[in-house]
Amino acid sequence: MIKIGKKYKLKKIRGFENSDNEYYEVISFYNFDTVICENTCGERFVFMKEFLIDPQKPEDIYSDLILERK
Predict the structure, then answer these.
(1) What are the boundaries of each domain within the chain?
(2) What angle do CA 33, 6, 19 make, to 5 degrees?
């Protein structure tokens, strides 16, 4: 469960190198499936909740997002 005030990492996308170990703090819920987050530099981002790693499912680190390269 995603909670306000907690820090989360983003899920990875299969097939892409991602060395980003940055944490994002949830500062607000935008709607049912979207959150507003802030990084350590104070920049704000909007993510769908499904892209944050849920601490109750720490083994679920990959997104279901599929990108095609052409």
Answers:
(1) 1-70
(2) 85
